[in-house]
Amino acid sequence: MALYAELHRHLGGSVVPRVLWRYFERHSSELISGFAEYSDFEDFYTRPRNTLDEYLELHTLVESVQTVETLPYFIYRLVRGAYIFENLAYLELRYTPYLRTPEHLSQSERIDKMAEIVKVVGQASQLSEYPIVTSQILCMHSRLPYEVNKAIVDLAAQSREYVCAIDVAGGDSYYADRMEEWIRLYDYARSLGIKTTGHLYETTAGCYPQLLPYLMRIGHGIQIPLLSSELLKDVARRGQCLEVCPTTYLKTGTLEDIRQLKLVFDRCFEAGVDIAICTDNAGLHNVRLPFEYENLLTYDIISFEQLQACQDAAFRHAFAWPYSQRPVSLLNRLLKPDHEKVLATKD
């Protein structure tokens, strides 16, 4: 039975290496002509990078082939794997729709095409054989102009059937010069009733306290407990949740050792700040959510009780989870002896 919630997964980084390789073999063999065999491609695709910028360049490889025509192919395999191999009951997929539109079109034409992308992703995610509750987070982008980012916010407001929130991505070191724009866009989104998260405090270059009040969740946020623990009190007061993606910080060179995350979890638990454990880019990492759980336990970063608290937090902070309980609570009820079910009904 599906049990877990994934709150931070990028559409571009979610394609596992084998699926991407097979697609390239059949449709874009020129993109893998430099690799003698699959193992060489997998090593290139999943190896650690020195910086976040270098790591984000890999997204462009996938974005170039995620079009209106091909998105159903990739999303079917993504949802199938999430259900069968990860036991996901809930999945939020985030991406920048503008970057899935044809590059030869004008900016206004690409903006007009974004709604079609959102609809295709939404419809392709609804698979009766793999019953996962899915929703989309639309990402504004640090490299895109204000007009495009505002159009992304407007599209989120117009597509509530498929979209649960907005985000800002593209490298947190690039926010500073346009901070007034981001504040204006987030303020605008909140005025429309759109839920918000944002890639913030992921790296030491992405620490912008002025953006925190506009976010309902914080994408990554690990530098808050590591460098600015005095902010945790306000984070807890606002009820914000950190979306912590353990493997990412090793792949981007942000952390040298996963055990550095122990301080993140310890300080957050002490301050009453919720953490949802996520994968970020499961394909680029070649890992799945249960592995992230197991790794944190293996290195004694968290206890089993803390893991359960993080799993509970993921459903509690899920923007589009339609139920008051997480699936394990429903399963426990089904497995109760008959006389306990009767008593529970009477209660």
From TrEMBL:
Protein keywords: Hydrolase, Metal-binding, Zinc
Residue ranges of the Adenosine deaminase domain?
Answer: 5-320
Query: Which InterPro entries is this protein grouped with?
Result: A_deaminase_dom (IPR001365), Ado/ade_deaminase (IPR006330), Metal_Hydrolase (IPR032466)
Cellular component aspect of the GO annotation: cytosol
Under the heading CDD domains, the entry gives: ADA_AMPD
Keyword Disulfide bond assigned: no
Q: What cofactors does this protein use?
A: Zn(2+)
Q: What is its EC number?
A: 3.5.4.4
| One MF term in the entry's GO annotations | metal ion binding
Q: Which Pfam families match?
A: A_deaminase
The GO biological-process annotations, alphabetized, read as: adenosine catabolic process; hypoxanthine salvage; inosine biosynthetic process
Report the sequence similarity comment from the record: Belongs to the metallo-dependent hydrolases superfamily. Adenosine and AMP deaminases family.
Could you tell me which PANTHER family the record lists for this protein? ADENOSINE DEAMINASE
Name used for this protein in its record = adenosine deaminase
Species name: Amazonocrinis nigriterrae CENA67
